[in-house]
Design a protein that fits this description.
Immunoglobulin-like, 1 helix, 11 strands, mainly beta, 4-stranded antiparallel β-sheet, 5-stranded mixed β-sheet
Length: about 150
């Protein structure tokens, strides 16, 4: 915890005294910005887990919560105990997000992780399911051009 120092002079019984006061600064529970790496082409209806992010920039335990898809979960420090209930993290902890991908092709599933009140696009883990192979075969069909000259 940071300490702020203030000095000053006080008039006390006909003489000046120099005094120093120390006051603890407030706890910093707002972490540095963090970013989950999105995944695409994931299998349908599968458990998808993000890579871990490391919590930095806090000097006291900070609240963590998850929102988004109904299957949204998080774990701390690779515990493999994924939860949806609010908790706390400390500086240096790692966090992973997890959810179940959509049962539909080319559909995004989002899990937002909020730590110490920091929330936004860069801390939302998104997975997008693969394309329907029955309807996308034409996208991958090889073709060639034949050029004739006279």
């Amino acid at each position: 915890m940071a300490i702020g120092i203030i000095w000053g002079e006080i008039w006390n019984e006909a003489k000046w005294n120099t005094a120093i006061w120390a006051q603890a600064a407030g706890a910093d529970t707002t972490p540095d910005q963090f970013t989950f790496t999105d995944q695409s082409g994931v299998a349908l209806s599968s458990t998808i887990t993000s890579a871990a992010i490391t919590v930095t920039g806090i000097d006291a335990p900070a609240a963590i919560e998850v929102s988004g898809d109904a299957s949204s979960l998080y774990d701390i420090n690779g515990s493999s105990t994924f939860v949806s209930t609010p908790g706390t993290v400390n500086n240096g902890d790692t966090v992973r997000a997890r959810h179940t991908s959509s049962a539909s092709y080319l559909t995004a599933t989002n899990t937002a992780v909020t730590i110490g009140g920091v929330s936004g696009v860069s801390d939302t883990f998104t997975s997008i399911t693969e394309g329907d192979p029955a309807n996308s075969a034409f996208l991958y069909r090889p073709f060639s051009f034949n050029w004739w000259s006279d």
